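Our preliminary data section would be incomplete without showing what the modeling component actually yields. Below, a chain of 123 amino acids is followed by its predicted structure, encoded as tokens that our downstream tools consume directly.
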Amino acid sequence: MPKGFKDYLAEASAVVETCSVQDALRLHDRDDCVFVDVRDGNELEKEGKIPGAVHASRGLLEFRIDPTSPMHDQALAPGVGKQFVFYCGTGGRSALAALRAIEMGLGEVVSVAGGFNAWKAAD
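Predicted structure:
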């Protein structure tokens, strides 16, 4: 039987640490944390993003992480003690993206529960 999105989300949830928006707010001011917005560009244009976040849309994430890619973003290079905080609109895409980032060796990665919507509601 083919897998559906719920299966992929369950796999991601089993591996990826999820942080609350309150924890994400505390992480935001830390120099060792990189916030990664995986929403599409039109969502950013319409709704904005978390200040200082790196944009790596879900569709191009692997290209932005891989250092051998011409689209690599140095902000997405692993580093000692560096933590990556992934978010999307509500938390689903960021969980999937965070799992892929872990598989690609990015290091310490978390996904924000409730995503940007929760951030806006809490901020």
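The radius of gyration is 14 Å. The longest helix spans residues 92-103. Preliminary results of this kind motivate Aim 1 of the renewal.
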